[in-house]
Structures are given as C-alpha cells and as structure tokens.
Amino acid sequence: MNIKEFIPLETDDRSGPDPADTGLGRFSGATDIAVGPMLACLDPGCDMLDLCCGPGNLSAAAHARGFRVTGIDASRELLAHAHDRAPGAVFFVGDAQQMPFDDGVFDAVTCGFGLMQLPDQTKALAEVARVLRPGGRFVLASWHGPDVSPAFALLYGSVLAHGAAGLKRPDSRGAHRLSRERSARMLFDKAGLTLDRFDTVTCTWDLDDPAGVIDLFRTGAPHTGALLNDQPEENLQAIRNAIAGRVREDFARDTGWRVPMPAALAVGTRR
C-alpha cells in the first residue's frame, strides 16, 4: 500500500479527554448497537478498512472477532485512543475523500456514521470503491433523518420552533441522503457499487436527563453541534426546554428515558 502518513504504535497523541467522557463517547450508546449488524454482513477474518473510525469502537469489535483491521480517520487524537482499544489493528491519519491506499487492497470497507458528516460524500464513495477489490463489500451505517427518526424529528422540530432567525436548519441538508434507499442506490451506483441490501437498525439513546438529547447533539455531532452552539442563549434555552418536555412526555421508562434513533444499514458490492 502507498501510505502517506502512519501513526506508529508508540506515538501518544492523547491531548484531550478520553472520548468515552465526551459527547462523542456518549453518542456511542446508540452507535454501538449497529456494530454487530454491520460486522454480520462481512466474511469473518477478511481484510477490512474501517473508514472514519474515530476512537475505534467498530475497529476494536472487528479485531476481537478475527478481522484483519485497518482504520483511517482525520483525527490523530482519536486514533491514539483507537490504538488502545485495538492494539493489533493498524491505523492511519488520512482523508476519507482522498485515501492513501493503492487500488483494490481491501476485501471490505465499513463506515459507522462518519461518511454522512463529510462535505463530499460522492468523492468518499468513489474512494471506497477504488480501494475495494472487485466483489468486495461496503457496509455503511447512517442516521435516519427526521422523517424516520424520533430523535432528529425532536431536534429539528424544536430548532424550527424556537431557533433564531437564520439558524433554523443545519447547513448539512444532505447529511441524511444516504439513509434514504433511493438516493443511496443512486450514489452507490455512481461510485461503482451495487446496493444489495438496505435495512434499518433500531438504535436508541438511554438517558438519565430528559435534556440530555440536546447535550448529545451539541457535543457529539459536528453539524447539529454547529446549529445549536451558534444559537443565542435565549433561543438555546427555549430549544432545550422544548426537547426536555417532549422527552419527559413521550419517551419515559421505569427508570430514565429511551429515545429511538434508528439507523440505515446500506450494504453494497464493488462491481
């Protein structure tokens, strides 16, 4: 493989808190539910690239199940934590839209919720197809949008009702397009991938604070975080109150609250 930059195992770039203690880590309560269904789509023990691998939750699970794992992410700090979780895997700093690998070197590529955050999803999908061997498998998880997801419907509805003028919708209006089967099929096909399967995984957030949804979106997701963090304090508090009220009313359990956040699972094959 032609590698532009590699993080050796001895490098320690843990300049911030453990991701488990951040919004990204708290997001993993929902994202980790998709790990098993994603790995079940692959042949055990194959050469796998985990794209936008972040702190390595999916990479670690795959490595523990016998996959030969390579991970790539733009964040050197998150990759240092990924090394801790999967010391037998290999991790690289890199851009998913311009990966530092030769053509056709992986049996499979996975991406758990990272591709939907990228500015050029079409280019990233073309890169996925390029690094896959012919017949290789791509497994993608993406959050459903507000038309399907109670969590995103609650967020966007509350922002629309209480957000400041000009801050009613996220800039990333295409973030959810890979969670719609028709657009996913079109984008896969354009990249040289055949969409073989499209399902929904029932992910959820378990909360001990009904306002926890807004905190998770502020700190755990770039696009929704920008939408919320740019709000004036008065508007942000109104959004928080609206979300907390709905969570108390609609999602209470015997202890705490459970908010559904379904994910789309798209599985494709390299032509």
What proportion of the residues form beta strands (DSSP E)?
15-25%
Q: How many H/I helices?
A: 10
For the largest sheet, list the strands in their spatial order: 3-2-1-4-5-9-6
Q: Helical proportion?
A: 25-40%
> Structural class, from helix and strand content?
alpha/beta
Distance N terminus to C terminus?
A: 21 Å
* Strand segment tally: 9
What is the H/E order?
HHEHEHEEHEHHEEHHHEE
Mean pLDDT rating? 91
Overall geometric form: globular
Major sheet size, sense and barrel closure: 7 strands, mixed
Rg (CA only): 19 Å
Uncertain spans: 7-11
What do these coordinates show?
This protein has 271 residues and is of the alpha/beta class. The protein has helices at residues 23-31, 35-39, 57-64, 76-85, 121-131, 150-162, 181-191, 212-220, 222-229, 233-250; strands at 47-51, 68-73, 90-93, 106-112, 132-143, 193-201, 204-207, 257-260, 263-270. Residues 7-11 have low confidence and may be disordered.
Please tag this protein with its features:
7-stranded mixed sheet, globular, 10 helices, two-stranded antiparallel ribbon, about 270 residues, about 20% strand, alpha/beta
Question: What's the short story on this structure?
Answer:
The protein is of the alpha/beta class and 271 residues long. Helix 5 (121-131) packs across helix 7 and helix 8 crosses helix 9 (222-229). The chain is globular, with a radius of gyration of 19 Å.
Give the arrangement of secondary structure elements.
Blueprint: H1 23-31, H2 35-39, E1 47-51, H3 57-64, E2 68-73, H4 76-85, E3 90-93, E4 106-112, H5 121-131, E5 132-143, H6 150-162, H7 181-191, E6 193-201, E7 204-207, H8 212-220, H9 222-229, H10 233-250, E8 257-260, E9 263-270
Parallel strand pairs: 1-2, 1-4, 2-3, 4-5
Antiparallel strand pairs: 5-9, 6-9, 7-8
